[in-house]
Specification:
The protein is mainly α. The chain has a domain of about 80 residues. The protein is built from five helices and no strands. Helix 2 crosses helix 5 and helix 3 packs antiparallel against helix 4. The longest helix has 24 residues. The radius of gyration is 15 Å and the shape is globular. The chain starts with 8 loop residues before the first helix and ends in a 6-residue tail after the last helix. Keywords: Membrane, Transmembrane, Transmembrane helix. This is DUF962 domain-containing protein. Pfam families: Mpo1-like (PF06127).
Length: about 120
């Protein structure tokens, strides 16, 4: 099943949804995918998340806590470039940080398993 988001940015702008209106993550995740309908945005999220995982591994390998900062910069930096530069929307993490963080990793898994295309 391909859950690639297909909603257009103009449709999202015409009928804005407040991310805080969702009562559960299972309700939020389809909205999250519509906020990531741009292929380049999804690719940048995937790259940023992969680099963040690498930084996490480097924390254990090197013992340096500086990799936490590098991981955060990679993860959020790539995602925000995707949103502001390509998706032309604001990341849902500004209004729903926990669900957005969870959505990042569920989308990452869905990309790895082929449910979401990049």
């Amino acid at each position: 099943m391909d859950t690639t988001a297909t909603a257009s940015t103009s449709a999202a702008t015409a009928n804005p949804v407040d991310p805080r209106s969702f009562a559960s993550f299972s309700e939020f995740y389809p909205f999250y995918l519509t906020e990531h309908s741009n292929l380049t945005c999804r690719r940048l999220h995937f790259i940023g998340s992969s680099l963040s995982l690498s930084c996490l591994a480097l924390i254990f390998v090197t013992g340096s806590a500086w990799w936490i900062l590098a991981g955060l910069l990679c993860g959020y930096g790539f995602a925000w470039i995707g949103h502001f530069g390509f998706e032309k929307n604001k990341p849902a993490s500004f209004k729903r940080p926990l669900y957005s963080f969870m959505g990042d990793w569920v989308m990452y898994k869905d990309i790895l398993t082929g449910k979401v295309k990049i």
